[in-house]
Specification:
Blueprint (H helix, E strand, L loop, with lengths): L2 H4 L15 E4 L1 H5 L9 H13 L4 E6 L12 H5 L9 E6 L2 H9 L4 E7 L2 H8 L3 H18 L2 E7 L3 E2 L3 E2 L2 H12 L5 E6 L6 H15 L6 E5 L6 H10 L4 E4 L19 H10 L8 H12 L10 H6 L7 H8 L1
Parallel strand pairs: 1-2, 1-10, 2-3, 3-4, 4-5, 5-8, 8-9, 9-10
Antiparallel strand pairs: 6-7
The protein binds zinc ion (ZN).
Length: 329
């Protein structure tokens, strides 16, 4: 796509809205973990290289879970060993337990996401233990992280809806986040794992968390899946409540093993174009990001899940300035 077509996605900065937003690209972890076809370590590193080239500074590179459960990420150590090639980028990894913590730290990862579900049933299905057992593990991991100066983010899955329990109330989410905050003041990533959330739920939850736990917006991140096309609307709800950190995957890769047919995360390229258009700074070059998305899409077992790359392939995104001029004259 020529540069001038992408200009349509950039708007004159609106001064009051001109703030920077942190994009955490989770393609190598969330995007790939459910893909049935193996992706080589080398291809993962090329994908990371393309994401870095676009200006992305925060990448969730892998997950230290048992290879039996997530064979796609069995090369967590091998991927981690090469991340020194990308200075200036903050890499994180997901961990479910102490073993994952030890492996990740041994592999040199200094930013970790400990995962726990807001829904107890999902926690049992996904992690094979109760929510309270996960929180006990978080306490243990937290102590080690403090000792090792490792930065933790707590990723809460099924914050708004659970495939087994249905809608998760804002009060239930508050209770889960409160339990973790009693253990440590880690930042919380609120994940809409099956993509069922609506913007009003996002607003209600964020208002409640800020009021009851005195959380600053900077202590929160949002992680939306786009199963029903609501991720950008939910992003807007998050932005309005002051959240400035959002997860996404290139080409919208990903899914949920407990939600057959569920699509992946919001596509990073769609999110960046959306933020650019509203005057937020992301520091990401959309043209280069589309190159990364194009590369990422080859690892998906499903058709492309985002919007921007499809529009590019179809030659959409409007008429170029030159053509428009010719038409007028
Ligand atoms: Zn996810």
């Amino acid at each position: 796509m020529p540069d001038e077509q992408l200009v349509l996605h950039r708007r004159q900065k609106v001064p009051s809205m001109s703030e920077s937003v942190r994009i955490v690209d989770v393609t190598p972890r969330d995007g790939l973990q459910n893909e049935p076809n193996p992706v080589s370590t080398q291809d993962k590193l090329v994908l990371i290289q393309k994401l870095v080239a676009s200006g992305i500074k925060h990448i969730q590179a892998t997950s230290f879970v048992h290879p039996k459960w997530v064979p796609q990420l069995a090369d967590a150590e091998a991927v981690s060993a090469q991340l020194h090639r990308f200075p200036g980028v903050q890499f994180s990894a997901l961990i479910p337990n102490l073993r994952g913590y030890e492996r990740a730290v041994a592999a040199g990862i200094r930013h970790l996401e400990f995962v726990v579900a807001a829904s107890d049933t999902f926690n049992r299905k996904n992690l094979n233990r109760s929510k309270s057992e996960s929180l006990q593990l978080l306490a243990d991991v937290g102590k080690k992280a403090e000792r090792d100066s490792v930065v933790l983010r707590v990723g809460f899955s099924t914050c708004f809806h659970c495939p087994f329990e249905g809608r998760i109330s804002a009060r239930a989410l508050l209770s889960a986040v409160r339990s973790s905050r009693e253990l440590g003041t880690w930042r919380a990533a609120l994940c809409d794992t099956d993509g069922m959330a609506f913007p009003d739920q996002i607003t209600e939850a964020l208002v409640l968390l800020k009021e009851e736990l005195k959380l600053a917006p900077g202590e929160l991140a949002l992680h939306f899946h786009d199963t029903y096309g609501r991720a950008l609307a939910n992003t807007l709800a998050g932005l309005k409540e002051g959240v400035r950190e959002f997860d996404a995957t290139a080409a919208g890769l990903g899914g949920c093993p407990y939600c057959p047919g569920a699509s992946g995360n919001v596509a990073t390229e769609d999110l960046v174009a959306f933020l650019d258009g509203m005057g937020y700074e992301t520091g990401i070059d959309l043209e280069k990001l589309l190159d990364a998305a194009q590369f990422a899409s080859r690892f998906s077992s499903r058709p492309y899940q985002g919007h921007l790359l499809r529009a590019k392939r179809a030659g959409a995104c409007g008429v170029t300035p030159t053509a428009a001029k010719a038409e007028v004259s």
